[in-house]
Amino acid sequence: MIRCRVMLTQRLKIHGNSADEPALEIASAAIVGGSVIAVPTETYYALAADPFNLQAVDQIFVIKGRQDWKPLLLLVDSVDQVEKITEDIPHRFYEIAERFWPGPLTLVLPAAKTLPRKVTGGTGTVGVRIPDHVLTRLLIGAIDLPIVGTSANLSGHPPCSTADQVLQQLGGKIELVLDQGQTKGTAPSTVLDLTREPARLVREGSISAEQLSSYLSS
C-alpha cells in the first residue's frame, strides 16, 4: 500500500503578475525531483507533478484520495508539447486550440504510447490544455515538460481558489504551494473529447456549450 508522505508544506508567495524567478527555480526543482506541489491556474489551484515519474503520479492519487483508475489531465505551454504526448491528432484540434488557448478548455486526444497508463487511466486518451496563467506556463517552460494539472483538493471536496484553502485540505501532504493570491475560481475548465466525431462535451465549465456548438454537431 502506498502511503502519503507527511511533510512541512512550504508556501512561496508571489506578488502581482510578475514571475518570481527564485520561486520558479524552487518549484521546478521540486517537480523534477519527483515532488507534488500546488500551483495557481486561471480556474483553481492545481496539483503539479511530472507525469512520467510514476512515484509522483502515485502520490497524487494518495494525496487526493482519488480512485486510481481515473485519468489525470495535463497542462502544457505549447501545441508542440501536445504533439509530443499525443498521436493521430485530428485536424480540428488546431483550429480549436488557436481559438480557445490559452484558456480553460481541456481537449481530450489520443495519448502517445509513451504516456504512463496511470496517467491515462487505461483509456488510451489524455486531456490537455494550455492554462491562461503566466506563472504556470513559465513553470512548465522551465522544466520543459507537461505537468499533471488535476485540481488541488481532496476528492469530493470543493476545489481551491486560494493557497489558504489548499493548505487547509492538503497541508502536510504536498511539498509546497506557489501562492499568487486568489484565482478566478468561477468554474472548472470545460472538457471536450475530440477522439470522436462529432466531438463530445464531457463537462461544461468556464467555456459554454454554446461557444463550442459548431464543434458539437456533425
Label this structure with key terms.
11 strands, DHBP synthase, 218 residues, 28% helix, alpha/beta
Descriptive account of the structure:
Strands 7-4-6-5-10-11 form a 6-stranded mixed sheet, covered by helices on one side. Strands 2-3-8 form a 3-stranded antiparallel sheet, with helices on one face. A two-stranded parallel sheet has the order 1-9. It has 7 helices and 11 strands. The chain has a single domain, classed as DHBP synthase (Alpha-Beta Complex), CATH 3.90.870. β2 and β3 form a beta hairpin. It is of the alpha/beta class. The chain is globular.
H/E order of the elements? EHEEHEHHEHEHEEHEEE
Biggest sheet: strands side by side, in what order? 7-4-6-5-10-11
The pLDDT mean sits at: 93
Spell out the CATH superfamily: DHBP synthase
Proportion in helices: 25-40%
CATH topology: DHBP synthase
Number of helical segments with 4 or more residues: 7
Measured between the Cα atoms of the first and last residue, the distance is 46 Å
Q: Quickly give the CATH architecture.
A: Alpha-Beta Complex
> Helix/strand/pairing class, anyone?
alpha/beta
Low-confidence stretches: none
Strand content: 15-25%
Q: Using DSSP, what is the number of strands?
A: 11
Number of separate structural domains: 1
